[in-house]
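USER:
Make up one protein:

ASSISTANT:
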Amino acid sequence: MPWWLVWVILVLAALALLVWIGLRLWRSFRALMAQVQQAQAVLERLEARMAELEALEDRAAEIEAEITASAARREELRAERAEVRATRRHRRQGRYDRAARRWDEISGDGA
């Protein structure tokens, strides 16, 4: 086998190896860029959520404890709390009724 043929084969093998390494690097780079874009989207959502939470924090700071409220104000607060509880109870009962109705449809126990 002539010596120049050995060198040609070695050079071609080296070029093939370089091409293979280059392709792997390119694919890794593209995957990295996709991950960076996803991270940027998550970061944008996080920043938006943090801005919302800061706005809520400012609003929550406006709420004051009413320890020394008058009797009339305490009655207003009790009435408001009773109304909220009644609304929650009504919603909870509605969810229960819907779930029971679905279960009766599934099990065939319905009327």
